[in-house]
User: Fold this.
Amino acid sequence: MSTINRLEWSRQVALLNDTIKTFQADPSPSQLEAAIRQMQSYAEAARLGGIEIPQRFTVN
Assistant:
């Protein structure tokens, strides 16, 4: 996985985490929909090869 691909993957994960945290802070239907849309977008990008997901990674 190239550095650029890893950075894009990290960016996508950060966006997804932020959306989920926002939903956890305000579990309204609109925040739930936003979290679901973000997860679907992430899954679709991975399925289509728009982002490369590493086989394993280390969290610092």
